[in-house]
Fold:
Amino acid sequence: MLSETEKDRITKIGDVSIHTHKDGFYDITPNGNNKYITLTKLIGECKYTAFGNDLNDHLVLDNAEVSVFVGNRDAYQSANYYITIDYIPTIIDFLESKKPLRSNYPNANN
Structure:
């Protein structure tokens, strides 16, 4: 676990935010950046399916065509599906059965 002193030192070194997970792990992210911004830089305006389990996933889930939250509805209210971690392979199979095989990515189908 990071102490408050260590967290303060990290945020003073760089322009970052620290998100503490319930399980004691941390996400250290540059301010002004997040999973959604990074994903849109990679795929542009393509539709996507997102899986998430924590506060740092909300923006990428909010903008997904299909959002799957791994956890309880009380932690995030806007997902299309709610699952437990052991159900991930089942939901992937289900989602793949509902979509055409064609990819959204340019040149991926060649």
User: Anything to note?
Assistant: The mean pLDDT is 85. Residues 88-98 form the longest helix (11 residues). The helical segments are 4-13, 35-43, 58-62, 88-98.
